[in-house]
Design goal:
Blueprint (H helix, E strand, L loop, with lengths): L3 H21 L4 H10 L5 H25 L5 H21 L5 H20 L14 H6 L3 E5 L4 E5 L4 H18 L4 H11 L4 H25 L5 H22 L4 H23 L3
Antiparallel strand pairs: 1-2
Helix pairs in contact: 1-2, 1-3, 1-9, 1-10, 2-3, 3-9, 3-10, 4-7, 4-9, 5-8, 5-11, 7-8, 8-9
Length: about 280
């Protein structure tokens, strides 16, 4: 698994994963894990360890740029981490007490159904006439950023904070119970529920995933699940891809990013559904 040939093959895959992860706030694991499992025949624990490295690398490569450009909403991200962390603890507690395949099917159906809402969303950079939730107003969760493509400042408000917290809690349960990333649910919570601009949703999701992944890194490392022969080319490729993704993000319209995100979401939902039914 540490040969030069494998490294050279892993690099372009990792670059693609890092680019997509930075653009869509998914962390890159959605590409890496299936490829490592079915193409390179890497054992599941090592594949998940490499996926964790990809999440940290994506967040490291993109978070600084997104924070500098004010695309990441730090107040929203840190506030929602409360629900994600609580969900992860709940998921870890339920591990062994509930059939993981049932959970996978439920979450897969939730992912697939959410594509309907994403497909109907606006084509503008920020949703219009968003009713600001009282808690969002109290915590000053709204914000603004400069869109270089538009050459203008984009202001936005935050809606439906309880709904966003609920979806984030489910994302944490999914992560703790199944040991997989939950970037898709983070983006859904921020975009569909709380009505943030799509660019802000994906940038904030990237920031949040880095915080969450850092908490899990010690466990994987202590158990020897982070194989340098796999993780090193993955980290390098994902970091390169994340840098490319951040540069692409500012040049693309939110509607374009959404059109990329929806088919990726469908693939992720179908993959999880097949996993759940044992296919």
């Amino acid at each position: 698994m540490s040969t030069v040939g494998t490294t050279l093959l892993l690099l372009p895959v990792a670059v693609a994963a890092g680019t997509l992860g930075a653009l869509l706030g998914l962390g890159g694991g959605i590409i890496l894990v299936p490829v490592l499992l079915f193409v390179f025949h890497v054992p599941i624990h090592y594949a998940l360890g490499a996926s964790l490295v990809s999440v940290i690398a994506t967040s490291s490569g993109s978070a600084a740029a997104y924070v500098r450009d004010r695309l990441s909403n730090l107040r929203v991200g840190m506030f929602l981490e409360i629900a994600t962390t609580a969900g992860a603890v709940s998921g870890a507690f339920l591990l062994g007490h509930i059939d993981a395949r049932v959970v996978e099917v439920i979450f897969a159906l939730a992912l697939l159904s959410s594509t309907l809402g994403l497909g109907r969303q606006h084509d503008g950079e920020a949703p219009a006439d968003v009713p600001e939730h009282p808690l969002a107003k109290r915590l000053r969760l709204g914000g603004d950023y400069y869109d270089s493509r538009l050459g203008a400042n984009v202001s936005y408000r935050v809606a439906a904070v309880p709904a966003g917290l609920g979806v984030m809690y489910c994302a944490g349960v999914l992560s703790g119970l199944l040991g997989i990333g939950s970037g898709t649910f983070k983006v859904i919570a921020l975009d569909l529920c709380m009505r943030l601009p799509f660019k802000v949703s994906t940038a904030t999701s990237n920031f949040m995933m880095g915080v969450t992944a850092a908490a899990s890194a010690g466990f994987y490392y202590a158990h020897g699940y982070i194989n340098p022969g796999i993780s090193a080319p993955v980290a390098l490729g994902v970091l390169i891809g994340a840098t490319l993704g951040t540069r692409l993000m500012v040049r693309l319209r939110s509607a374009t990013l959404r059109r990329i995100f929806v088919p990726v979401l469908i693939v992720a939902g179908l993959y999880m559904l097949l996993q759940g039914v044992g296919a």
